[in-house]
Amino acid sequence: MTTALTLVSGPGDGGDRVLTVTGEIDMSNAAEFGAALDRELAAGTAVTVDLTGVTYLDSAGVAVLFDRAGEHDLRLVAPRLLDRVLRVSGLTQVVKVMIR
Amino acid sequence: MSVGEEAGQRAVFPGTSRMAARMRDFDWASSPLGEPRDWPSSLTTAVRICLTSRFPMIVWWGPDLRFLYNDAYLPLLGSKHPALDKPGAEVWGEIWHIIGPMLDSVMATGEATWSEDLLLPMNRHGYWEETYWTYSYSPVHDDEGAVRAVFTAVTDTTERVIGERRLATLRELGARAGVARTEDEACELVADVLGRAGADVPYAAIHIRDGDGELALAAVTPGGEGAAGATAWPLKEVLTDGVPRTVSDGQFGELPSGGWSTPPVEAMVLPLPGDAGDAAIGVIVLAASAGRALDESYRTFLGLVAQQTTALVNGAIAYQAQQQRAEELAALDAAKTTFFANISHEFRTPLTLILGPAAELREALADAGERVREEVEVIHRNALRLGRLVNNLLDFSRIEAGRMQARFEPVDLPAFTAELASVFRAAVERAGLAFEVDCAPWGEPVHVDRGMWEKVVFNLLSNAIKFTFDGAIRVTSALDGGHAVIAVSDTGIGIDAAELPRLFERFHRIPSARARSNEGSGIGLALVRELVGMHGGSVAVESTPGAGTTFRVRVPLGTRHLPPEHVVEESSTGGPAAETADPYVQEALRWLPDGDRPARPAPAAAAGARVLVADDNADMRDYLVRLLRDDYAVTAVRDGAEAFAAACAEPPELIISDVMMPRLDGLGLLAELRDDPRTAAVPVLLLSARAGQEAAVDGLAAGADDYLVKPFSARELLARVRTTVQLARLRTQHARWRAAMIESLQEGFFVCDSDGRVVEINTAFTELVGFDAGGLPYAPPFPWWPDPETDPAAHRQVSDAFDHAWDEPAGGLVLPFRHRDGHRVWAALSYTGLHDDEGHRRLVGTIRDVTAERYAVQRESALASMNQRLAGISGVPDVLRTGLELLRELWDAQRVLAVTWPPDGEPEVTSTDPGDRRWADLAAPLRETLGHVRSLPALHATPAGSGVGTTVDHPGGRLTLWVEPAPGRPLGTEDRTLLALLAGTLAHALRRAHRDDRQREVAIALQRSILGPARLPAGFEVRYEPANPPLEVGGDWYDVITLPGDRIGIVVGDCVGRGLAAAAVMGQLRSACRALLLEASSPAHTLTALDRFAGRLPGALCTTVFCGVLDPATGALTYSSAGHPPATLVHRDGTAEFLDASGSLPLAVRASAPRPEATAAVPIGSLLMLYTDGLVERRREALDEGMDRATAVAHDARDAGLSDLATALMDRLRPADGYEDDVALLLYRRAVPALDFEFAADPDHLASTRHWLRAWLANAALEPDLLQDVLVAAGEACANAVEHAYLDGLGATAHLAARLTGGHLVVTVTDRGQWKQPPPDNHVLRGRGVPMMEALADAVSFRHDATGTTVTLEWRIGS
Q1: What residues in A contact B1272, CB-CB < 8 Å?
Q2: Neighbours of B161 (CB within 10 A)
Q3: Which residue in A has a C-alpha nearest to residue B1243's C-alpha?
Q4: What pTM value is reported for the model?
Q5: Is the Cα dihedral B252, B254, B258, B263 positive or negative?
Q6: ipTM above 0.90, yes or no
Q7: What sign has the CA pseudo-torsion B160, B161, B163, B167?
């Protein structure tokens, strides 16, 4: 059984792109998540990743975000549940994260 | 004088002396000596030495021997000063004939002279003076070597020379003492001596008062016979008032000059006082030499001359008086003999009339009272004695008068003598002496007068008894060359060889050191000699002092030596006449201990001053007592030693003592009395038969207050006694006040002198320690100190305290003393150091008997100590051991042992001595003693063997206690009382311990058998602990019951009371509760039903119970409490939840009311604690505090396994002395079952693995944030495992385990792959996993080995 993950992309309110993620992100589907993100980044505009529906995120997912944070205008919206993982991984220092 | 001149003068005449100043100012220009600056240097040097010396010096200068001298010479010069620069012959004209030639000789020859004590009659104070000098004349040479001057250093030796000469005169006078026999002789003697001392006494005249009181010239110094008639001197005036007078020039004519050129110009008239304050006996005129001023020292010398004269004249007077007295005594003696001769027989009639009726009275009053009989005995005895004395005197007078009627008849002398001796047998044997009579008959009769012979034998035997204290008296007879010889030998004290010649002298008594009696008239042996003499025989004595005496009576055989008219040839018959024998035997018996009357008759008149009479002569003693007893309380003693002892015991106001006494004579007594502070002030009146000034002076010098020469008149004696007593009373009033005050003190009083000796004590002191004033002074170590041998600690304590007292101004302390009879006395001592008149330190103090107080305190403290020590002890053996040890400590005893006597088997021994293990270890005598003690009534402490024993009742039979005291510390009455009291306490403790022992045994057995199930459901733990001894078992219980429907009933209860009874009640309640729970399944119902049950169960009232039913699956708990402390839920975060929502009353208090019920949830990881109050209840502490403490301990140990947690609770809550109440504890911890599963090492399986983990974590009731941390960290570990497996290829599995123990969460992930460094391209991916785990978990560890890798993640929850 693969890890359940739903990826939905669309325009955001401020002319940016929004990738809405639902489910869990681990090493089994991190690549899939990375690919979806790359697609949005390819448009060249700012991308907001909405992780509000994510219940599990480990280092595999964090690594995907780290890899893209340096070159792109990337923002995160995350639930409080993921706050600690994002913080201890150091991602909050390189990406704007908004906790909901 | 110019400045230069002045400086020159100062160089020659240095210093500030008067003569230096005079010399500086002197007009030397007018002198032949000229200006000092022109003097030869030898002169200036000599003058400088002279002026700067403090020794008298002169420089005689030049041919004129001009006079230069210093300040020290001024007094020698007298009125001749100033004599500076005068020619020597002019200054010392009067002696120039002596010194001029000497000086000239020095000037001429240059040789020095030396003169010692040279007489130089000088006129330097206006009169011709006798002076003596020691000086030297030394030449002073000038620069050319010619003698220019004489240098002289002088010493005036006048005082020394004259002083020595006067002393020689006084010595010579003193040496003449006792030479003169009459006053005239004495005066001539003085005049003779003074005639040779003319230099100091040129003229002396002695005027003595004659019988009419008129002065007559008795003697005058040679050459003075015609000089100065009696009228020239104030003789009468001096005689009258006794004041010396000085008579100056002109009042008397020319007197002899005494060898001086000038006759005396001054004289002294001095009184010659009589002895002991009598009127002056005369006057002496002593002229003073004209060569000396009549100064103080001269007057003193003349006074001493007068004194010596007085002594010489008085000595002669006393000698005369003595002579006269001796003559009078001789006359008196003769008169007495005649008198007795004339009247002795007159005594016989009244004596017969006394003796006869007295003898009849003795018989008639044989049944009368003792007192009456004694009085009659006294009359009879003394009448006998008087009769004997009268007879003896009569015999004497008859013999002297030649009227003795003898009847010499033939007698078998050995037989007769043996018969006479046998009369004395009883007395000799009672005296403790052997009596040997060896008188073999020799067949030839001896002519003796039977009556006389009786007296001879009786006197000799009586004498032997008197002076023999041990050994034997022996009577033998023998024939010796025509003589019958009867010998009486003793082993007595013997007689000094010096006394033997006077032994048979009439009235002569031998000064004996020791005799059974000092009574005696001194006529017994004299009579023997007279009587034997009448038989033509003789009596001889041989004696060795200390060995014995033998009297040998020799009587010629035949009749030729006897007056024929008194010889008869027929023998009379019959034994010794009772009237002759009785007095001797009676008297002898009276000397022996049984018949001895007290040496000191009771004081007759208690009201008067107390007078002590010491005289060895019974007659004199009685006479004095008779004289004095109407006015004084008289005590009489026999010698000086007795007198001293009596005076020390109770100092009298006057002691009248004979001078001559055995053992200690009067002068010796005086010395002892004066040497002892108690008696130093007691006045003493000496009596002596010795006349003479010397004797009186001896007595007075020795410190007697008065001196009386025998014979004296009664009136004189009474007058002297009265005066002395009055004076002494005045003198000692202060001392008497003090003594009375000290005597009246309730406390013992003592004074120590500077040597530390106790020199004064009062009666209270004696009562306290048993030593009386008779033994004073007492020197340390005092006899009332504890014995250093047997009680060294106490001895040291007392002696240290005594030493310490000398360094302290004052102090007080309590000390152990030893009474004379040996018992211990505790005395509170307070003392003060004082300095007496002579600056010696003394110690004055009081002592008070605090023995009773001390024993009371000791008893109280011992009882308290016993109670206290035994209170904490349980078990009969321990109680007994502790009790014995305490007894041993209390008395510092050698050992204390206890014996119990079981019905069979050997007695059981408990002892403080480890050596006494068994009955057989004890010595046989001790076993016997203990056997005796065993039969005593309980609690009667009595001396037993070398110790003290008592018995007490003991649960195991009678117990015998025996205390063997330390050496020298015997247990007295007080100690025995205390032992009985303590034994009672011990018995009580033993009974209690025994009862406790039995109950404990039963209760523990019971409790152990009925407590709790052997197997507990999972998650439960129980503990029970009995209370601290001796209150060990109680009624606490717990129970865990598996109920239908996977529920569990839990119960903790506490019955009221302790011991066996409570345990029994508990057992029933527990069973009932269990049954009710199984049936009703509801806590409230159970307790309600239990209420009814308990109402019918005695002792169950007020039992408290907490009863609950738990669903372990959900943690739901229904509970109800019957007055029990609430169960506590300790949550993982340390908070406590007290399950007190259904609290109600204890069991059976209100049986009908339904009980409330409440519910609670027991979360995973929380601890449910049920307990009885013993766990948390402490004295002086609220229950809440104990519950909080239990909560804290439970939280602190939350990670431990449940069993360890229970142990930790019991251990850490247990007070230092153990639980005071029994404790039941029931713990339940609800836990999630450990998670443990294999998963496929495949990324696709990670999600399902997380699912199970998330569900388990949720069940463990973890907070969401923590849950997420655990989930992510565990996810990372799983990803690691998958990665390893992935790298290895092939479908491997990994293992996940999670468990939660209390607050400790452990997750482990194990794979079977090799841990490999991730490849570089995967760096980012793997690099974040480990930090993530480390950041999220409290602890992370990795373990790699051959089989794989294990990651362990740990969290502490709630910390």
Answers
A1: 56-58, 85
A2: 18
A3: A28
A4: 0.36
A5: positive
A6: yes
A7: positive
